[in-house]
Write a structure and sequence with these properties.
heterodimer, A: mainly beta, OB fold (Dihydrolipoamide Acetyltransferase, E2P), 5-stranded antiparallel beta sheet, 9% helix, 38% strand, B: alpha/beta, Peroxisomal Thiolase, Chain A, domain 1, two-stranded antiparallel sheet, 14 helices
Chain lengths: 131, 388
Amino acid sequence: MNIARHWRERTTRYRLEGQRHRHTGEVRFPPQPPTLDEDPNDWEPCQLSGRGEIYSFSVIRQAPSGFASLGIYPVALVRLEEGPLVTAQLTDCDEADLAIGMPVEMVTRRLMDTGEDGVLVYGYKFRPCVR
Amino acid sequence: MNNVYIAGMGATAVGEHYRRDLADLASEAARAALASAPGIAPNQIGALYVGSAYSEELYGQGQLGAYLASVLGLSPSIPALRIEAAGASGALALYQAVQAVQHGLPLALVIGVEKVTDHLEDAIEAAQAMAADSNEEALHGVTLTAQWAMLMRRYMHEYGYPADAFAPFPINAHANAVKNPLALYRFTIDANKYRKAAMVASPLNLLDCSTLADGAAALLIAGEQLARELAGPRIRIAGAAVATDYPALHRRRNPLELNAARASAHIALGRAHLGVGDVDVWELTDPHGIAATLALEAIGCYEPGTAPRHAAEGAITPTGQTPIATAGGYKARGDVGGASGIYQVIELARQLSGTAGATQVANARIGLAQSLGGIGATAVSHVLIRET
């Protein structure tokens, strides 16, 4: 884990902070620099609700390096209620219960193995709505 | 602009070359390309373009331009460079060579090369995931295979297909690879085996997932003057185009639309003054049935939601309307990473020369090779024509 890079991303990874367009109201996540034809002042930070529904999902049985401790794990594209799609792991669920359209909510969980530096990397995941 | 021709080509077998290193594989491919072009000498090569996706991450070698120029003994005073665009690296290297020859360079050498099998599956999955967005996708443990899998599940949901509707793609790929002595998997599979295969990233199973393997392929790209001296039918690169899309799948308005694939194919065909219906044989980035499906639909061969149905009716076989993977495709020839784009063009050149043997597409005169980096974040298309 690149600790400095993780620190820079803290508001996105811990709080699901995106950007809202001051005039159109469009929401995007994660935040990004303004494109060349945009006014940098047009986008302001905005905290997302963390609620959405599953657009699609897969259960990974061949993990990349750094994720062995997760075993077999589900990942999804989640359509947030503010509009953006987001890529994340699912948690607290059984594969058989998952379905496209299922309501999910954001939780903070450990994303990957603890590396040689011993840093626990937390970030957003989604679980079936319990509320 | 000058016309551009394929003057020579050569490739190694695709496989796990435990006893051989990257330089060795690249050398074999380059020597084979020169051997296929009698009358062309190494000192005529005016530039070297190398395409490789994983040479740093899985082989520990940077600066492949200088590295391979010295291995091959090319003149130290010609430009030699390496191009990276994940799986589209080799095709993008070819694109650069085509640009140079169009603008007056007499002869360029293009090499696509990968040496990946020294590593276990987890390192290979992690290297491939670098094609995605590192912050927004790879950090979450999402692999390239899982991303195609999510597109497959969404496609099944939107159009009402079961998973085994995609079986015709790997079945065709394996059937064709049996006839290709350079292919990784030279055995047939059937729908029954497909249904029983173990999951890799649901709903994608083992028989619908390509394997990344070692290999190298090389092309000599020549201008009209040199090409006129060559024997046999001349294969002209009549159109070339590159387009891009968001590497992060979730940033795309509709993830099932491969916009860069559509744009690059149409621009390349436009430059060749041709349309989609003129193409006799295709090479696509087809590591999974869903990948071929979305490419065929993006390019406009079939309406969205219909490609698996056409595939089931035989449209993608060598005798069908849109033959693909005639040498085995990514699934059965093997996914050679950034070298795949060069293997694709070599197969099309064989088809258009009428030397493709058992998988020959009858009267093939025009071919289109499309190579994708990541999930179509980079798309490179080349249109090839046999001159009469």
